[in-house]
Amino acid sequence: MRSLPTPAPAAARQLSMPFDTGTLHGMSRTERSQSLARMARLLLEAAGASVEEYSDDER
User: Fold this and answer.
1) Which class for 29: exposed (0-12), middle (13-18), buried (19 or more C-beta within 10 A)?
2) CB-based contact 30:19 (threshold 8 Å)
3) Distance of alpha carbon 23 from alpha carbon 13, whole angstroms
4) 31: Cβ–Cβ under 8 A, 6 or more apart, which residues?
5) CA geometry: angle 41, 49, 19, nearest 5 deg
6) Is 18 helix (H, G, I), strand (E, B) or coil?
């Protein structure tokens, strides 16, 4: 059986996401912090990173 040729490595891509948009300006500091933390967690999970969960008591 012949082995298949090795594919060329894909160029790295980086998504640019502004975290200081008009939508965030209408939020309180607490709401903005919670939203950004949730987005960061979602992005880490999508990337396959292991994310530990913390309850509110452990913060």
Assistant:
1) exposed
2) no
3) 26
4) none
5) 35
6) coil
